[in-house]
Amino acid sequence: MPAISDEAVSAFTSALPIKVFVAVVIVTVAAMVISYMSPQHLMRSLIATIDDAEKTYLEAHSMCPLSAAETEKLYFLQFKVSTIVEETLHNSLTWQSALRDFLHGRAFILLRCIREIQMFETRIKILKESQLRSESNLIPRAIFLRRRGVGL
Q: What residue intervals traverse the membrane (predicted)?
């Protein structure tokens, strides 16, 4: 049986915990990124984002009529979200198609759509604030009362 020197064993054991720790950290970070970027997780975020945008649109529409372009944009985004959700659900039926979907960049399609919806919602909020400001020029405290939900 070959003899192993104590120095070699000591050097190996002292270096092992750092390498194991680094490996565990790398695997944990990779698992978190894959979990966050999974189409199923992003699909839930996409649905929540479109729901928030619809609520913002309805709030703004109750304050002042919005242009037909804004209504058309909301309809387009709703249709796009519906299509993406359907495709994502269809591709999640088997693990092979889910993996293929992930590797073909479905996550980036979902992230781009989420960003489009957030930009739309921001435009609606800007229109809503503009309307509140124009009302506050007529009635000085209207903007604060409206935000608190108190009617005039």
A: 20-37
